Amino acid sequence: MKAILQPLELRGGRLWDGIADTSREGSVFTAISDVGVTLAGTASPESRILDVSGCTIIPGLIEAHAHLCFNAHTDWREVYDSETYETLLLRMAGSANQMLVSGITTVRDLGAPTKLAVALREAIRARLVSGPNLLVAGAPITPTGGHCWFLGGETDGLEGVQLAVRERKKAGVDWIKVMATGGNMTPGTNVFAAQYSVEELRAIVAEAHRLELKVTAHAHGIEGIKSVVDANVDMIEHCSFQTPDGPVKDDEVILAIARSGIAVSPTINGAFAKERNEARWHMRKTLMKSFFDARCDVLMSTDCGIPDTPHENLAQALIVISDLAELSPVETMKLATSLSAKLLDLPDRGTIEPGQRADLLIVEGDPTQDLKSLQHVRIVILNGELVSEVK
Ligand SMILES: [Zn+2]
Fold it and tell me: Ligand 1 mean position to 67 CA, how many Å?
């Protein structure tokens, strides 16, 4: 069923369009469901007027790496293992809505049981439940016993991985995710070692591209990072160059990533700021800066859902990445708006321009001056619909 929504007219305040170097004053524009954003003076008499004085209107934020099925606490695995599918799905819906009211209007879920992720995306689209726009990968492709095997994506060998891509296409996923190294959250896997051969990774990429899907690869250690670069995946998650001593960058590999046009989704979260082991912080900072220095395509992601990373962590995590990479507030916000929209192939969002989807976030103060303003959410508008308002 399609709801008929009242057009919204936003008056006063400032506006940052997702592209400009600064915010500008005195915006009057409307947000209309299915029509998108219309700038200046076209409001109709039936519009609902929202006074946003003292606030800034920005594009709704995009989270490129989430796990709606994890609860963000240290007991995540016990909870995940003990829940029925029904309960898990309801919890995922709750987490999705929590993200939406925090100003995140698009979320890419990079690891959940395939059927649940697709069901939730469809339920939100059909407006059965409230939540952000979802892009889903379903269960990441992983070898038997490999990282996150418990999400249901174990597959081995060339035929196995090819079939896995076809199954996901049939199920209706938006991205293919492959676990190219072990991960911290799966005992018995090795973060520093590759989990698949380059041939298996190439088979995944070839099959996904044939089916018009893009591939993002989870990779921590350099061996796995090198193999996904060899296989020419579209994006790398974490890309942390992890060694037992901490992240150690490799300039040659970073240049290869930049040259191949492989995007980097670095999964930076608020917990990094708490960690503050000076030596490791410095190593991480060196790595982050080298991605930008090499002109890699970087977008913002947090890996929310993992312990110490609540689903609505993005606003806080943006402060951490601006600190690590020494970016201005505007450069930082682009990573979670216009740049992420571009790298996720979502040309209808990430900026505020006539005709764009009316996914808007209205925060108190001006985040182009101070990113903390992103944590003071006043109004969230999803596709022209006012979904959250703090009075
Ligand atoms: Zn993850």
Answer: 6
